Amino acid sequence: MKTTRQIALATFGVVALAFMFGCSSDTSKQDVYYMIAANVQLPYWQTAANGFKKAAAQYKVTANVVGPSSYDPVGELDALQKAIIAKPAGILISVADASVLEREINRAVQNGIPVITMDSDAAITRRLFFIGTNNADAGRLGGSRLIEKLSKGNVAIFTIPGQPNLEDRLRGLKEVLNTQPGLKITDIVDIKGDAATAFDKAQQLVAETGGRKIDAFVCLEAVSGKPVADAIKRANAHDREVIAWDADPATLDAIKDRTIDATIAQKPYTMGYFGLRMLWNVVHNPPEQLSKDFRGDFYSPFPVFVDTGTTLVDGSNVDLYLSATAAAGNQGNK
After folding, report:
1. 35 beta partners
2. 306-322: pLDDT as tens digits
3. What does the alpha-carbon distance between residue 180 and residue 299 come to, in Å, rounded to a whole number?
4. Average pLDDT over residues 177-200
């Protein structure tokens, strides 16, 4: 009930922002906005790009979606540097590694380009604010689901250490699992953003027996859900619990066939869509000082964080998500 209420409040906040940032007829076709994704090949980021482009079409501005084709913080840095050279109206970026991207995010803002972070934040920078999931709460949601299914056993976590949003998810997950003494995190796997690495490690772990047997797998990002499910299927180890992340079609199919118990679905389309709308609003209603640290400003015109919400998807509601995914695909093909 608490989670439902939080989602409802988050939804209300987003709707309120929609009215605040309503379309205006005073648009410029010369405005160019960049969305820089952590991995443009993932369905998750393609969905976010669709939202970004939808808002751009409504405002009659140009949307450029760029970024590396695999998890590559240095590649994302290169995309950001090229975007700054292009002098766009605004930049929406997901931060794969804050230590790599911090300097250039600050440089963009100092050069008069508003930057909003999405999906993964870099609060230490001069970005204006963050739009995305409350990742610590989402980690708690995953942990709560796991302790509903298991009271004891070994847990393996698949993640990318150092990525800000994943660190927050891990922190929230640990908070919940610490309330269940019988559950022990025995392995934290760095998949390096690579599905093959996730599959190989899952195969190794699923073969463990005795006191080393892995009873549950928790995937804190979208890449590893399907590979872990595939490894479990190949080993016919259907006594293992799997909690995945995001609503990629392959993940939803694995819930349908009961290899994955549940996934934490975010709203990448909403992040992209509202990200552009918010950037447009900043560009057309600029603050007096763009590079100001608004976090401590009592009269700040910007929020610190816009929560786009999460939903737990399992066997009870997976068909709704599969239908929505199919409908979105059909709309995109028209």
Report:
1. 65, 92
2. 999 999 999 999 999 99
3. 43
4. 97
Structural tokens at position 188: 């934290």
End-to-end CA distance of the chain: 39
Write down the mean pLDDT value for the chain: 90
Please tell me the class of the 135-265 domain.
Answer: alpha beta
| Mean pLDDT score, 24-46 | 80
Q: Residue 36 corresponds to which amino acid? A: I
Cβ atoms of residues 166 and 137 within 8 Å: no
DSSP 295: G
325 vs 319: CA distance, rounded Å = 10
Task: Find tokens 């022990």 and name the residue.
Answer: 184
Q: Look at the alpha carbons of 42, 94, 38, 283 in this order and tell me if their dihedral is positive or negative.
A: positive
Structure token digits, residue 163: 């990525």
Residue 178 has pLDDT above 80, yes or no: yes
Q: Which residues pair with residue 219 across a beta bridge?
A: 158
| H or E stretch covering 262 | strand 262-265
The one-letter amino acid code at 61 reads: V
DSSP class of residue 267?
A: -
Closest C-alpha to 17, from 277, 298, 325, 333: 277
| Rounded Cα–Cα distance for residues 334 and 332 (Å) | 6
Q: Which of 174, 183, 191 is nearest to 231 (CA)?
A: 191
Q: What is the pLDDT of residues 105-129, one digit of tens each?
A: 999 999 999 999 999 999 999 999 9
Question: pLDDT: is 82 or 11 the higher one?
Answer: 82
- Residues 246 and 265 sit within 8 Å (Cβ to Cβ): yes
| The CATH homologous superfamily of the domain defined by 2-133+267-303 | Response regulator (3.40.50.2300)
Rounded distance between C-alpha atoms, residue 113 and residue 134, angstroms: 26
d(CA 277, CA 323): 27
Residue pLDDT, tens place only, 272-291: 999 999 999 999 999 999 99
Residue 141: which H helix or E strand, with range?
A: helix 135-149
CATH 3.40.50.2300 boundaries in the chain? 2-133+267-303, 135-265
